[in-house]
Amino acid sequence: MDEGTRIGSYSRAQHDGGRSMRILVTGGAGYIGSHTCLELLGAGYEVVVVDNLCNSKEESLRRVQELAGRNLEFYKVDLLDKQALHAVFESSPVNAVIHFAGLKAVGESVTDPLRYYHNNVTGALVLCEIMGRHKVKNLVFSSSATVYGDPSEVPIKEDFPLFATNPYGRSKLIIEEILQDLHRADETWNVSLLRYFNPVGAHPSGRIGEDPNGIPNNLLPYITQVAIGRLPELFVFGDDYPTRDGTGVRDYVHVVDLAVGHIRALENIISGPGVVTYNLGTGQGYSVLEMIAAFEKASGKRVPYKIVARRPGDIASCYADPSKAEDELAWSAHRGIDKMTAHAWHWQHDNPNGYGEP
Ligand code: NAD
Ligand code: WQD
User: Fold this and answer.
1) Has residue 69 been placed in a domain?
2) 170 CA from centroid of ligand 1 (Å)
3) Ligand 1, atom 10: nearest CA belongs to which residue?
């Protein structure tokens, strides 16, 4: 049985008499997970990470600990390995779980749906079973604005109709429904479903950020790789959408704001609300051309681009009504497009090959 690799363990003496809560972060080595681990450590939580490193590197966690000046516990474990996960819960008891671990590439989910359903849905099932067995029933789950499909209007509220347009999105919808059923069966479960809009940017230190494998699917990592010279030019997918300049409009949200949103959701979940759902976005939409212009201003680099055909499955406009999170979690995004683009560039500039070899 693979019990994973422990790369560090937090000394209680460093903290407030050992009274702090212990949080398991699945997928904690990934993009949003690593930023959230840093915020958790900064807020005084003890952090246990489970990640199989299928889309991340251990280096992210080393840097999180360096930035926080505190250690976390890391287990290189696959969520699908029930016995190994059970062993983590045995040796590192926790009070709550933040569940990031999952596969997230929309196109890949269309060509390899079984892998996506198996990893994302079965992974969530195994996690919930082991949590239940250990009487840990507080869960914050990474959902996505993709569960709204192609909304009939914007801004999007949490009670809008839900619809999946690809297997990735359907895996998120299925997990949301499973978690609702779990709470119906046992009301002692508390679950926060966080529907992120478009997470971008990096920690202002430039030490941790998004490190996509291969050619990026998402807009801002593609832009930063053009600016650093890894890619020759950006392809803008369509300029004939019914938007102010014809290009797609999205609600980009700074990853540090998103990470803070998880702390707020955790504080709320521990008070026992049952199943709650929140949009995490800024409420402000920007077009592709506006993102390019903002990036050029923040970085001083020019981003050559070419308008090409629409990308299949893309929608014209998607942005949040984030007022529920504001009212109930006292959370709102403070970092604007200037910081999103400047921090993304700082990270890319200082780490041209991400966490890989220089
Ligand atoms: P990421 O790929 O950087 O992080 C996910 C982490 O999960 C990776 O470190 C990966 O190694 C790990 N992982 C995957 N399957 C695993 C398994 N079976 N066992 C253990 N570890 C596993 O992605 P991210 O951008 O940080 O996204 C985190 C979560 O947020 C995902 O669930 C994603 O679907 C969701 N989300 C992301 C976005 C986005 O645009 N980045 C938007 C909405 C929702
Ligand atoms: C943003 C805009 C593109 C790349 C995806 C997932 C969604 C969520 C977030 C996980 C669009 C345009 C992009 C490029 C471009 N992930 N674009 N050239 O598609 O809104 O959302 O990531 O949950 O589920 O679908 O984000 O960054 O890919 O695209 O013109 O090379 O940029 O058409 O208008 P998207 P994105």
Assistant:
1) yes
2) 15
3) 55
* CATH assignment of the domain containing 29: 3.40.50.720
CB distance 33 to 79 below 8 Å: no
The three-class DSSP label of residue 99 is strand
Ligand 1 mean position, distance from CA 117 (Å): 14
Which atom number of ligand 1 is nearest to the Cα of residue 218? Answer: 40
Q: Specify the number of domains making up the chain.
A: 1
Tens digit of each residue's pLDDT (9 = 90 or more) over 102-142: 999 999 999 999 999 999 999 999 999 999 999 999 999 99
Which ligand neighbours the alpha carbon of 142 most closely? 1
Quick: pLDDT tens for 292-336.
Answer: 999 999 999 999 999 999 999 999 999 999 999 999 999 999 999
CA–centroid distance, residue 69 to ligand 2 (Å) = 34
Identify the residue whose tokens are 């429904």. Answer: 177
C-alpha–C-alpha distance, residues 68 and 132, integer Å: 31
- Tokens standing for residue 233: 């030019």
pTM over 0.90: yes
> Is 174 among the domain residues?
yes
**Residues with active-site annotation:** 168
Q: How far is C-alpha 147 from the chain's CA centre?
A: 15
DSSP assignment, residue 157? P
